[in-house]
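User: Some background: our group keeps a shared notebook of sequences we're curious about, and every so often someone picks one and asks for a predicted structure to add to the entry. Today it's my turn. The entry only has the sequence so far, pasted here. Could you supply the structure so I can complete it?
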Amino acid sequence: MRIIAVEDEKTELVALVKAIRNISPSSEVDAFDDPLKAIEFVSKKKADIAFLDINMPNADGIKLAEVLKQGNRNVNIIFITAHKEYMEDAFNLHASGYLIKPISDDKVKKELDDLRHPVENGKRKPILRANCFGNFDLQTMDGKSVYFERQKSKELFAYLVFRRGAACTIKEIAAVLFEDDPYDNRVQSYLQKIISAMMKNLKAIGAEDVIDKGYNSLGVIIDLIECDYIEVLNNTSKAASLYKGEFMCQYEWAEAFNAFFM
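Assistant: Of course. Here's the predicted structure to add to the notebook entry:
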């Protein structure tokens, strides 16, 4: 579970981070005294929970919350302030909580115990199922195949699953999807259309959060995907029995990986 803490007063920030770590020692905690640096950080890595001071220079907590929710609508926003007059704005943003200073372990615990979007066992629940043995197929958790209007969009998603959450640069993706073509303006433009189509199709089923978009890179949030291939890598015997000699067999770049399972 990743938690960010944003507070421009450094002594307050230290107290907040200390309280968070006391209550949730297994969580990854990233602290910022500059909201603009927090925005840069979440453009590359998604947070499950954000403690945000409301009164800050450069970008106040309300504006910062709006930016965070654009990138991850299920992020738990917990506002921090010495005043109560901002509570209406917090509620309008569907914030998870509202913490009144001074900060204490008990107050932080209360908010972490009552999140608007629960993060169970440090991980979010899977929302998609990827089947990689045989032909690659992507399904919702109720067994419905995910529709991709472009086959290259589906191949792109398959490659991101293959990389198991690693960030892939746009140039790397282009080299995989268009290995015989130079990385020129035509390919770059086409690839952006493929990415946009993929995001559109994922958004249509409420699964756009599975994509981790960074600066000039893409990845998948692997906790949000159940996958037979990843289960095999994790030594899940049941998944290993599903392998029948083919791995993402519709994609040439996946052929070499078959030897791994033999």
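Suggested note for the entry: The chain is about 40% helix and 20% strand. The two ends are 35 Å apart (CA to CA).
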